[in-house]
Amino acid sequence: MTAEILEPRRRPTQERSHKKFDHLLQVARELLLDVGFESFTCEEVAHRAGLPIGTLYQFFQNKYV
After folding, report:
1. How many CB atoms are closer than 10 A to CB 56?
2. Taking the CA of residue 56 as centre, how many other CA atoms within 13 Å lie in the half-sphere pointing to its CB?
3. Which of 17, 25, 49, 51 could be 12's S-S partner, Cβ–Cβ 3.0 to 4.6 Å?
4. pLDDT, tens digit, for every residue of 22-53?
5. DSSP alpha helices (H): ranges in 1-65?
6. What is the pLDDT of residue 6?
7. Which whole-number Å values give the CA distances from 10 to 33, 38, 58, in the listed order?
8. Per-domain residue ranges for the chain?
9. Which CATH superfamily is domain 15-59 in?
10. What torsion, rounded to 10 degrees, do the Cα atoms 36, 41, 46, 48 define?
11. Of 45, 55, 49, 47, which Cα lies nearest the Cα of 9?
């Protein structure tokens, strides 16, 4: 994979978006530590973050990003 593929789709610009982005990253880190990469899913990140899956996909294309 190239580094370009591993970049978020977009970076947040508003404070509210920054908070969601940072929250998603924190939840993703915790989930990754809890379950490992093979069991890691974007759906579970969104669920644990209490956000719609579409919010996650606005920033991240897939679990590799």
Report:
1. 21
2. 23
3. 17
4. 999 999 999 999 999 999 999 999 999 999 99
5. 15-35, 42-49, 53-59
6. 66
7. 25, 25, 7
8. 15-59
9. Homeodomain-like (1.10.10.60)
10. -40
11. 55
